[in-house]
# Entry
Amino acid sequence: MSLLKAATEVRLRAYAPYSNFKVGAAIRAASGAIYSGCNVENVAYPEGTCAEAGAIAAMIAAGETQIAEVLVIADSPLPVSPCGGCRQKLSEFGEGGVKVTMTTLDGNAQTLTLAELLPGVFTQAHMDRS
Ligand code: THU
# Structure
């Protein structure tokens, strides 16, 4: 299955009654396997989770830790842009060169790398004092 197909399908199962903005995300991990996730909102709004977080959780639950490629899709006028928190979350498991394709349902797509999406990413090195 392609990243586009996986993200498109999982998006339909998003739980987004508050924003009415359904998002699907798919990750191809180092093994080649694809993991997908959708946003899951909550009546306590900050408790909602993004599609990317769901896809990462599925990848980790399957025993993989290395992201090779990402695709995010939404019914948006512009290619849907991962939020700042998700950029950091993706960077935990993906190198800077990992490609992230952001797309609308009608194929208005843009591809950037994780490094382009999150210049100055916070890393373990920022905590190393020795
Ligand atoms: N959202 C995602 O799931 N991923 C993104 O890349 C952008 C935003 C969700 C969070 C919330 O459920 C809804 O979209 C509106 O912000």
In short: The pocket of tetrahydrodeoxyuridine is lined by residues 16, 19, 21, 23, 39, 41, 48, 50-52, 72, 80, 82-83, 86 (CB under 6 Å). The longest strand covers residues 94-104. Residues 51-61 form the longest helix (11 residues). The mean pLDDT is 97.
